């Protein structure tokens, strides 16, 4: 949901998109019939933000608030409409005034996730917007959407609304006003169409009114266009009046204040043909968007194609379509909110387009100011290279690598040549001077550069990229390696250090030319134990108890400027978690290697492995950039392997902790050093209270034994979980026909992969789709199991036993079969030979 700070179970201080916000009463139930809490509502709005904002950005928001909850059908809760932004709202919430008879009221504008989270915090469950946006001067703009609200009267329902929607579509489509349906989450269906530029709200109302009367004339038994209630029995009202500039409609993806937490959801026309069409709950909507995307996206930010001049990224957005390019295409043209207390970033991307060139991008005012440099960074002050300024790019582009389709703008492959941070000396319209330092071992090194404008202005202006003769302190700068030369080198590009790089330091540290080996980064492992054994061991050692976090293990390599992460498997997962690795982690000026857990928190601030699944299986930069704001992660530290250029693994744990506390003293907000408990029973009680996975009891005198499982670390689990190897699929039936019904599981033993039962619950539709994609290529005709019963094997579709997952379960039977197992997720950080039976 957000970067969380310390607070009680009902209160958290969070950072959302760089905004600090206090959330309170998170455990308060707002929907009694379903037990849905305020924390879950906030979580929904934070995760749907990227999808919802294109449909509300620039529009004044009228809210319907339920501070004490919606109540029940028999006893509904008190609600009230809020137009004016309440006193005490954060200053960063954007607002625009609208004159009323009682004076001007400041309406909130939603352009970022932080504002959505704030509105949810004050129990604004329903968000209503008009069919126009503000102009840049703050005036009411023209209508950009046409809306028809199909409202069923007594005796009618969604099937009747769907029939009327199809009749409306038959009229609107030939007019060039292709409609998109939305089930309102209340009773009926809304249809939205994009209007061409220059349409007034009065004109839109007239079109809608005439359309409603036309459909009523053709179908008088089912359709009514009059608001009179006595005419509506068994009919569907086509409410055309919501196109009036003073009226609003429930926003797409807004929750509803009904007894159940339904949502106004964009649907496909195929769905409207389903006789079982129904309104969807908020959790179903999150899964749906993750799997299907947004059917209403053509009417999002670009509705009517009208406001592309309202932000620094408008040119970038106008040149790209998110459904045709893997590049990040933000819905909002506004610049990103970036911390001001850290050095800005740069990235140089090698771009094999029509002609090979290098894209040089510098962070400036929340965007990436960009230049195309045909010959790259000059290797010497004796040579200047042409640079052509291009459109500003979004901050997310700093992580982009991929292939842009051939027919799209900039078609070709893009890879990151080098990246890092820069120190700015001067930024004028015609001259920029800065010192850039690339990643350790990268081709750029540390170099002072200048961009000098020679002709033109703005986009397509021509500049020279110049390598300065001296650094910022007046010392001569060594020559670097030209990018053309590095293209022809025998070693892989980026593997060697440019001659302008800083000298190596710290023997054996991440700053040395020899990077840490996989064995250097192999984590120490704990042995499964019982509370009694752990309690007795703590009595001998002296109590040292840590919480067992429900995440994935990660070794962090800190080079003094950037954190790199390695999974337990040894895979580099740095790019997966940019909120940890693309920032200054604040771990000091000297290199270090730390040990910890990457964790995703739920709405109550508790570790959630299912939430983490949304991140750990992503690989594409664009997917990561989209999901990171919805499902942020933390890095919980608990050990250190190397510090200040020295290996400290042989030191006792108590001494390593002192070193770790010094290193993490000024760590960035997503990096947390949790406390150590001094009482096993108290730690277990706290873990039970907060629904945590368990605890780890450690010997304070223990050294760090890389890659070894030690009885000086004892893990005590409260939730029984087991890593398993997937060996087969059983086909689904009924509602899962054509999909996965269950998975057949095994645990490696002395005789092979010992059959351990099956799991058929805990799967969402998106999880089943992911599993199908992963397992289908592994299909084989060979049974991988030892000891599988004939009944379970009868319809099994065997797969090669290469994929590891994790389940919750009640107990093992005497035959080693998992009872009451439930799927938790894939474990791409584990290999099958690492899986052992938990005692």
TrEMBL record:
Major enzyme class: ligase
Domain ATP-dependent DNA ligase family profile intervals: 626-746
Keyword Nucleotidyltransferase assigned: yes
Record Pfam families: DNA_ligase_A_C, DNA_ligase_A_M, LigD_N, LigD_Prim-Pol
Keywords annotated in UniProt: ATP-binding, DNA damage, DNA recombination, DNA repair, DNA-binding, DNA-directed DNA polymerase, Exonuclease, Hydrolase, Ligase, Manganese, Metal-binding, Multifunctional enzyme, Nuclease, Nucleotide-binding, Nucleotidyltransferase, Transferase
EC number: 6.5.1.1
UniProt-recorded Gene Ontology molecular function terms: ligase activity
Catalytic activity, as annotated: ATP + (deoxyribonucleotide)n-3'-hydroxyl + 5'-phospho-(deoxyribonucleotide)m = (deoxyribonucleotide)n+m + AMP + diphosphate
Region (Disordered) location: 470-526
The keyword Transmembrane belongs to this UniProt entry's keyword annotation: no
SUPFAM superfamilies the UniProt entry points to: DNA ligase/mRNA capping enzyme, catalytic domain, Nucleic acid-binding proteins
Cofactors named for this entry: Mn(2+)
Family the entry assigns: In the N-terminal section; belongs to the LigD polymerase family.
Protein name, per record: DNA ligase (ATP)
Natural source organism: Microbacterium deminutum
Lineage: Bacteria, Bacillati, Actinomycetota, Actinomycetes, Micrococcales
């Amino acid at each position: 949901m957000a970067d969380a700070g310390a607070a009680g179970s009902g209160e958290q201080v969070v950072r959302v998109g760089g905004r600090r916000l206090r959330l309170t009463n998170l455990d308060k139930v707002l929907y009694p019939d379903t037990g849905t809490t305020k924390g879950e509502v906030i979580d929904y709005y934070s995760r749907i933000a990227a999808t919802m904002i294109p449909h509300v950005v620039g529009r004044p928001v009228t809210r319907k608030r339920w501070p004490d909850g919606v109540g029940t059908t028999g006893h509904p809760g008190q609600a009230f409409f809020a137009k004016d932004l309440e006193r005490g709202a954060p200053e960063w919430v954007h607002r625009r005034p609208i004159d009323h008879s009682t004076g001007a009221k400041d309406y909130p504008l939603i352009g970022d996730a932080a504002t959505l989270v704030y509105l949810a915090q004050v129990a604004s469950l329903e968000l209503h917007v008009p069919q126009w946006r503000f102009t840049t001067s703050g005036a009411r703009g023209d209508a950009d959407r046409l809306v028809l609200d199909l409202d069923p009267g007594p005796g009618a329902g969604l099937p009747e609304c769907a029939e009327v929607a199809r009749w409306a579509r038959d009229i609107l489509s030939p007019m060039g006003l292709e409609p998109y349906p939305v089930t309102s989450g209340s009773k009926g269906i809304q249809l939205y169409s994009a209007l061409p530029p220059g349409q007034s709200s009065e004109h839109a109302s007239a079109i809608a009114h005439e359309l409603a009367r036309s459909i009523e004339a053709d179908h008088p038994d089912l359709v009514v266009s009059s608001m009179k209630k006595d005419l509506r029995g068994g009919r569907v009202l086509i409410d055309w009046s919501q196109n009036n500039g003073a009226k609003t409609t429930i926003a797409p993806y807004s929750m509803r204040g009904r007894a159940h937490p339904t949502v106004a959801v964009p649907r496909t026309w195929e769905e409207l043909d389903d006789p079982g069409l129904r309104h969807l709950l908020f959790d179903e909507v999150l899964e749906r968007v993750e799997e299907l995307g947004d059917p209403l996206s053509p009417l999002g930010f670009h509705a009517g194609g009208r406001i592309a001049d309202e932000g620094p990224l408008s040119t970038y957005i106008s040149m790209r379509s998110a459904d045709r390019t893997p590049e990040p295409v933000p819905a909002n043209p506004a610049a990103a909110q970036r911390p001001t207390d850290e050095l800005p970033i740069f990235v140089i991307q090698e771009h094999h387009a029509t002609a090979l060139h290098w894209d040089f991008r510098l962070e400036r005012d929340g965007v990436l100011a960009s230049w195309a440099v045909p010959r790259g960074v000059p290797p010497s002050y004796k040579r200047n290279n042409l640079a052509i300024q291009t459109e500003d790019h979004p901050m997310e582009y700093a992580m982009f690598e991929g292939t842009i389709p051939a027919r799209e703008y900039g078609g070709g492959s893009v890879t990151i040549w080098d990246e890092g941070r820069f120190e700015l000396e001067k930024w004028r319209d015609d001259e920029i001077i800065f010192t850039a330092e690339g990643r350790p071992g990268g081709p750029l090194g540390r170099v002072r550069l200048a961009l000098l404008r020679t002709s033109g202005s703005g986009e397509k202006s021509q500049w020279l990229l110049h390598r300065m003769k001296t650094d910022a302190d007046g010392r001569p700068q060594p020559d670097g390696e030209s990018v053309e030369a590095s293209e022809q080198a025998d070693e892989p590009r980026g593997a060697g250090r440019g001659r302008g790089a800083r000298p190596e330091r710290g023997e054996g540290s991440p700053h040395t030319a020899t990077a840490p080996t996989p064995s250097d980064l192999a984590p120490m492992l704990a042995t499964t134990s019982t509370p009694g054994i752990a309690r007795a061991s703590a009595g001998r050692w002296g109590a040292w108890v840590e919480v067992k976090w429900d995440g994935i293990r990660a070794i962090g390599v800190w080079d003094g400027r950037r954190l790199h992460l390695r999974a337990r498997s040894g895979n580099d997962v740095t790019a997966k978690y940019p909120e940890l690795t693309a920032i200054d982690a604040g771990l000091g000026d000297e290199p270090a290697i730390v040990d910890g857990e990457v964790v995703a928190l739920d709405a109550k601030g508790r570790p959630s492995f299912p939430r983490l699944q949304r991140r750990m299986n992503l690989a594409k930069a664009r997917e990561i950039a989209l999901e990171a704001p919805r499902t942020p992660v933390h890095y919980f530290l608990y050990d250190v392997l190397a510090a200040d250029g020295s290996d400290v693994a042989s030191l006792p744990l108590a001494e390593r902790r002192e070193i770790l506390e010094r290193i993490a003293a000024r760590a960035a907000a997503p990096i947390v050093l949790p406390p150590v408990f001094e009482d096993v029973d108290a730690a277990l009680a706290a873990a039970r209270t907060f629904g945590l996975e368990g605890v780890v009891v450690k010997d304070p005198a223990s050294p760090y034994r890389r890659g070894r499982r030690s009885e000086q670390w004892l893990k005590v689990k409260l939730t029984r979980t087991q890593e398993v190897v997937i060996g087969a699929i059983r086909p689904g039936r009924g509602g899962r026909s054509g999909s996965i019904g269950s998975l057949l599981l095994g645990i490696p033993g002395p005789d092979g992969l010992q059959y351990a039962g099956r799991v058929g619950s805990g799967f969402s539709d998106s999880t089943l789709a992911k599993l199908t994609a992963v397992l289908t290529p592994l299909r084989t005709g060979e049974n991988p199991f030892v000891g599988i019963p004939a009944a379970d094997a009868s319809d099994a579709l065997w797969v090669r036993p290469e994929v590891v997952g994790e389940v919750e379960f009640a107990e093992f039977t005497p035959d080693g079969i998992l009872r009451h197992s439930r799927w938790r997720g894939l474990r791409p950080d584990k290999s099958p030979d690492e899986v052992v039976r938990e005692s």
